[in-house]
Amino acid sequence: MIFRLRTFFFKSNGITPLSSKKSAGWCSLKEHSCLPGDSRYDSQMAIATKLNKLRPLVLNRDRHVCQMCGAFREDRDPYTGHKVQLKVGYVVPPQHGGHTELGNLRTLCCACDEGFRRIPYLPRPNLSDLLKALKQSKDSDLKVLESLLCAKLTISR
User: Fold this and answer.
1) At residue 128, does pLDDT exceed 70?
2) First-to-last CA distance in the chain?
3) pLDDT for 47-72, tens place per residue?
4) Which of 17, 78, 113, 145 could share a disulfide with 108, CB 3.0–4.6 Å?
């Protein structure tokens, strides 16, 4: 019996079928790096366990509202027509240095979660990069920025 896991194919007995198949993505189960007992597998299971414990806390903190589009759990999904299903997602993904802690998690609906996973992660610029960009900008750009900031200040008051 053969089954597919990610991009690799495995035989149920763990034997690599042919050397020509090996170059086409075939490998034995022992070559796969994410099986029970492996350190990578154990760390992924620890993250999943911690995430399951934090999930109800994040949903209650965010009052069961998607933090990107504002959808409630009672709303209807515009794409499927079913009730909105809420998930817990990362602000900064673990592959980019994010941790599984309450401050790095947020409530997302399925549509926003799927969209968030498809876009590449871009880190926030630090203050020195922003100041450098402001120094290099034109006077007209600075006037637009100033008017936007003034409009935001009057709205927030």
Assistant:
1) yes
2) 66
3) 888 999 999 999 999 999 999 999 99
4) 113
pLDDT of residue 79: 82
Q: What is the pLDDT of residue 37?
A: 66
SS3 category, 107: strand
φ and ψ at 4, to 5 degrees? Answer: -110, 135
Radius of gyration, alpha carbons of the chain: 23
Angstrom distance (rounded) from CA 54 to CA 18? 46
Q: What b/e sequence results for 136-156 when a residue is b if at least 16 CB atoms lie within 10 Å of its CB, and e otherwise?
A: eeeeeeeeeeeeeeeeeeeee
Residues 27 and 8: their CA atoms lie apart, in Å, by: 7
DSSP 105: E
Q: What CA–CA distance (Å, rounded) separates 116 from 120?
A: 8
Residue written as tokens 């880190």? 123
Q: Can you give the pLDDT at residue 155?
A: 57
Contact 83, 103 (CB under 8 A): no
Return phi, psi of residue 132, to 5°: -65, -40
Q: How far apart are CA 71 and CA 63, in angstroms?
A: 11
